[in-house]
Design a protein that fits this description.
Layout: H1 8-143, H2 147-163
């Protein structure tokens, strides 16, 4: 059992060595190791904060992009609606204008027809008057070729004039 249990001198020197090493480590290495651990912890914490900030910024950018996209779609829809309304208005205006132009052409044609009709009627009346005068002249020459017929005609006109 001697082999298994260490001697007291060995325990003393091992304890003395261990405490000396612990003192040296505490005096010279503990503070730099704690400082390195604190620095590493703060850098990890800063990295996590930066990642969270970046995630929030990305979420904000995504929301802003969605908002801009929605506004762009709305503006596009408004522009398309206005363009459609403008085209319908242009078509309606063109229909009205063509209707007015057609009505004006019909009115002008009716006026020309009416003028031509009046002119033709005047011409016909003139022709009828000329023909009537020619026929009357020929009848009068034929019937009034002798003196007796002329006297009878004058007497007849006098009688009619008195009656009227």
């Amino acid at each position: 059992m001697d082999l298994i249990t260490p001697g007291t001198g060995l325990i003393f020197w091992q304890l003395f060595g261990f405490l000396g090493l612990l003192f040296i480590l505490i005096k010279f290495a503990w503070k730099p190791m704690l400082a390195a651990l604190d620095e590493r912890e703060s850098s990890i914490e800063n990295a996590l904060k930066a990642a969270e900030t970046a995630r929030n910024e990305m979420a904000n950018l995504k929301a802003e992009n969605e908002k801009l996209l929605a506004e762009a779609r709305l503006e596009r829809d408004n522009i398309l609606k206005k363009a459609h309304e403008a085209s319908l208005k242009m078509i309606e205006d063109a229909k009205l204008e063509s209707g007015k132009a057609g009505a004006q052409m019909i009115a002008n044609a009716k006026a020309v027809i009416e003028t031509e009709k009046k002119s033709a009627l005047t011409e016909v009346k003139n022709q009828v008057a000329i023909l009537t005068l020619e026929v009357t002249e020929k009848l009068l020459r034929k019937t009034l070729s002798d003196d007796k017929a002329q006297k009878e005609l004058v007497d007849q006109f006098i009688k009619e004039t008195n009656i009227n």
